[in-house]
Amino acid sequence: MGRRNRTTRSGKTSGTRHAKVKAAAKDLSSARFPIVGIGASAGGLEAYTHLLQHLPRDTGMGFVLVQHLDPQHKSALTNLLRRVASMPVREVTNNTRVERNHIYVIPPNVNMTIAAGVLKLSARQPATGVHRSIDLFLESLAEDQHERAIGVILSGSATDGTLGLEAIKAEGGITFAQDDSAKWDSMPRSAVGAGCVDFVLSPKMIARELKEIAQHPYVAGAGEEDDAEFHSDAERETNAEESSAAHGKPGWPLVGAEQARPAAPGRGVETGVGQENSFKKIILLLRNHSAVDFSFYKPSTIRRRVTRRMILSKSKTLSEYAAFLKGNAKELDALYSDVLINVTSFFRNADAFDVLRQKVFPKILARASRDEPVRVWVLGCSTGQEAYSIAMAYVEVSEKFPRTPKLQVFATDLNDGLLDKARHGLYAKSLAADIPPERLRRFFVEEQGGYRISKSLREMVVFARQNMISDPPFSRMDLISCRNLLIYLEPSVQRRSLPIFHYALKPEGFLFLGSSESVGPHANLFEVVDKKHKIFAKKPAPTPSINLPVVKFGNPRNERKETLSALAGAVPEVFRREPNAQHEADRVMVNHYAPPGVLVNDALEILQFRGSTRAYLEPPTGKASFNVLKMAREGLMLPLRAALNKAKRENKRVRKDNLKVAQNGNTRVINIEIIPLKNLKERHFLILFLEPSRTGHEEAPAAESGNGNRHSVISKKEESAALAAMERELAETRDYVQSIQEQYEASTEELQASNEEVQSANEELQSVNEELETSKEELESTNEELLTVNDEVANRNADLSRLNGDLANLHINLNMPILLLGRDLIIRRFTPEAEKLFNLMATDVGRPLSGIRHNLDFENLERLITESIDSVSMQQREVRDKEGHWYLLRVRPYMTMDNKIDGAVVVLWDIDPLKRSEQAAKESRDYAEATIRTARDSLVVLRSDLRVNSANDAFYKTFKVKPDQVQGRFIYELGNGPWNNPRLRKLLEDILPRNTFFNDFEVVHEFPAIGRRTMLVSARRLDNEASAPAFILMAIEDVTERLASRLALRHSETRYRRLFEAAQDGVVLVDAATRKITDANPFIEQFLGYTHEEIMGKELWEIGLHKDRETSRVALRDLEKSGDARYEALAIQTKKGQDREVEIVSSLYTENDHSVIQCNVRDITRRREADTALREAQRRLANQAAELEQLVAERTGELTEANTQLETFVYTIAHDLRAPLRAMEGFVAMLVEEAQTTLSDTARNYAGRISRAARFMDALLVDLLAFSRVSQERKELVLVNLEALVQTVLGRLEKEIQERNASIEVVGPFPAVRGHEQTLGQVLFNLISNGLKFVGPNTRPQLRIRAESISRPPPGKKSSGAEEEWVRVWVEDNGIGIAPEYHGQVFRVFNRLHGENYPGTGIGLAIVQKGIERMGGRVGMDSVAGRGSQFWFELRKA
Amino acid sequence: MNDRQTILMVDDSDNDLDLMRIAFAKAGFNNPLQAVHNGEEAIAYLKGEGGYCDRKQHPLPAVILLDLNMPRKSGFDVLAWIRAEPGLQRISIIILTASLRMEDVERTHGLGANAFLVKPATLEQLTLTIRRLKDWLEVNHFPPHNEVVNRH
To answer: Which of A130, A760, A950, B20 is placed for a possible disulfide with A475 were both Cys, Cβ 3.0 to 4.6 Å?
Structure first.
């Protein structure tokens, strides 16, 4: 079944655009000629050249060349082709119109398309990976020119052009591909592989073929056609649904069109009638060949294809073609395929698939049960892309659902060739352009020839041949996809198809049509799901009978055509409703054989008359009524009512016999039967009017007529009885026949339904069977292939094992470590020598090198190898193994036979001996050089002629000369001739001839740069390499300094000796090894009383410096360990037996390679005695101090005790003594008050005195208490805000200040001080209140309080440097003042200077002094009698 | 404080007690006065023991004037005892003693005294002091429990 998908076109083509295109086509009638699109890539120039060389100048065609060109460079192609082509060659510019007999060449770096015969250029998108410029052009050419498009693919690599040719073929154009003459054949091969190429030829032959096509009458005449002639009215009609596409689509003049244009003479185009016959004949031939009746197809479609075949087969007329076709199975196949050709692709019209994904599959999945597969039928599946696309979409959607029923896709088509392709599921690489990479990865497997559908996806789809028109449909489908198939069919067939789909779908199944298709008149069967993308859902309406074609079993395929023709006749019947025979039968039966009656409802209204009731009922007069009682004839009404009532009441049959009914004056006897109808919503009654049995009926008149002929009566009676019996029998038989008839009809109906189902099932089975057979064939052929391959493999294996053997032997004999690695550094092979070096075992083959711990002392082996592979270059390094053996490591990339890099070869050359000898040579050279360079002595090498060959650094340094002052000079001429000494000359000149040498020849010389020096010269023969003349090596040693230091040493030794001998400490030197005394100074000899000789050679213990030998040994060993030792206060005895105390300090030092112990011995006897005396004195002093302290503590305790007692005493006095005073004062006051009138003045005076005395005493006690408190309490000193305190105190004295009208001047600022707030408050209170109190009579007190910061040394220390910050506060008054002689007394307790005029206790200033002293400060005053006083106190600044 | 509430004076000096009564009268302080002479008696009074069991005669005081320096139990003892006695928490205790020692002020406040007064040297000053005390008690607010306790 042919199917063309042109959704891309019709989807976006609007009516206006059609109109425009059409108008353009009309204006430019010259555009009606074939346009040949020729695509090529690599190797294209040669192919073009051949092709164009052989093309005549007047083909009448236009040629457009699409070549892959370097985007960077201007193309020379146009110029090159101009030389070979007989036609004009132009490079295309935008909007170039293609003309006949011209060649157009694409410019570089653009995309070219064609629209309405005009070439359009557009900028190429950057970074597009694959060149698809040929596809792009050919596709647009197919779309624009349809069957007038001709595509040619010439030499080139990759697959560009394949899709373009497919498009051209699908549009009915003609396609060519270059044969194996192509230099690069993958492009043409890809096109041939895709099956869309009509001719595979060499360029030359292509040219020839093109020429012939150009001469074909339909082609040659095409250009003259006017648009109107392409599409006759008749054709337009048939194309009604295709019109949108057909309008924009000029084509060849169609053969066989009903109103064929008059035959052009000489062109062999036949007349209309002849054409029609030939066309029918072709259809018939096709039908016989393929069992498909193409008369259901739109003739225009078929004709276009036939024309194409005619052109290809070079048939000039239809009849010629028909004759050619007859019996030509190959051509029939070709035509059949062509008719059914299509263009399809994966996810064509992707939007529609989105709708499937979003709207359709979720619904199907939501209602699907787990066990049953989701069933999809894809009609016109062609090469399977659509079916696979739907399967992919389903898989993608279903993954998001919790349960995913299996998918079963039935994909059907008429074309076996296409089905085969679909089954293989192998698609050209070019599909990668349509499918996103992740989908590609997921559903496809990349193979040599392209991409193959993955197995899991393939298994979901069953491909089968099925003719929608003639074969039974599948059933119970969830989704039917029938896209762009219906448009090719006759409208009547289209209409017929939809009920079939309706039948085949499950309830609420979906139908997926092409974008220009619709459900047409069957809107009652399908509702729209997505209007734009033509997705419909089955409505629950009953399926109109689809009248499935009956298929005879056995040989279904061959029989189909019969059913097909049967079907053709039945088509108009399809949509007529079946007449309801049963109802009709019932109606007839009731009318004829049932007793007459009426059906009434509960209200006795007649609902239905059955049979003739004329005899029993009549329309009532008056108001029209259907009430049965009103309509009853005379005599019937009463019994009828009674019977109805009874029936109503009892709800069962009621029968009344022998009722007399008047009719037209006659009386008839009838029976009535009332039957209540049950099981209905309302109550109904069936009233039957029964004629009494014929006998009964006859009887009555007979009876009425009196006795007649008895015999005749009897015989008549018998006769009528027989008649009645026969009639009854007849009636029974009729009933029986009736029932049998009904049963039969029912079973026929059932059968029909089952048949339909069976046919659907059968179809499915056949499809599956077919699929299986195909698979089996495939398997067999695969098996065959495998056998062949196996043989091949066996042969190869033999070769391989021989090669392997060779290789193994080679490896063993190479006797060097070799390692073969794969690309990812997998070990492939290694030699036995490599085993040891790389720690390899046979099982390591196949493991990565990185996992091996090799023995080479070389970290970056892997990196080196990778580097070698990546850079395709040899890398080498000298490396050592862990044992220090040297190898040359050489890494080369491993080249396969076809020059690919597939790993690396690692070879190790044993270079150890080489390396070692090289090293030895280098070492000895280095050694010699280093020796000469580092020698401290100056060395000069002289040639045999006594000229300087070379000198070492020491020489240049010693003599402060430069190499050019020395080298090559004669030895005697160096400097100012130090070596020009006759004796030295003699010695030097003798060396070579006599083979002598000399040492330490002394030269004393005044050198210009370094002054006077003493040199020792030695010289000897220096043998060079064998052949060369010998050298003299002259060594010069500067001994000037050595001589000088030797002298200095001698001097220092003398000094040391004097010191040693004059020292007032004893010094003894002992050899550490022998422990014998080697030297002693005179002091120790004298001190110990030994002579020098006695001491020398003795050990230390022998002269009493150690107690005994053992002690000495231990002491000396300790000394050797620690380096020095000290013994304080060691008691020894002199030789004369005197006791001495010494201090010995020993130290170890090295002198001339052996250890010497030096012991310094000091006599500390006297010092020890003085020490003892001092310690005794100190002890005594300490004792006395302790005693004193004890005494002080005791005294302090006593004092504290006394103090406490005193305090308690004072407190008690203050506290307890005040009580009697209060009583005295209080009661005297009461006495005076009580005895107010009776008391004499004298008595009142006495009472006043008592009272005043008591009050004074109380004041005294209060002050005393305050003083005691100030002197007793210990206060912690804190920061006191003096300023605030002054204000507080002034506040407390507010009353006095007012009373005395005093003026107080407070001069701030007052720095904060360290003190005790309460005590300081008391101090200020006393000072200020004194100032207020002690003023002269009639004097207004004036006080000034101020503060100053001073620096003074801390109290108690006499002018030690550090001074402290203090604050001095002044309280100055204008009072009576104090005479200087009393200044010392004012601060004493109870010291009052003033008499009764100035009452006071004399304690206030004492409190001031005590308080300030307790705070660590001091007080003072400055006063002159009568001139006021200035009191001050000092406290530490806080 | 109303004028029916009792004031208890604790002082070992009869002179001082008499002078205080005089001062109370002079100050127009008409509340009933009760006096005891030492700490033990004060505690007995508050407990309602011995001669003090009749609360009609010896009602619980609202205010106590407490001397510190007393024989047997001192003012400190009485103060500490009262403040440990749950039923007597709301009685206002005013220390009235002969001499001012800061450590005494510190200590009595620590034990929960409400005020610390020094006995003035003269009757005139004493009267002034009592008048001030009266004023202070009048303007002060006391917790309700204090009132309840004192109504017994």
So the answer is: A760
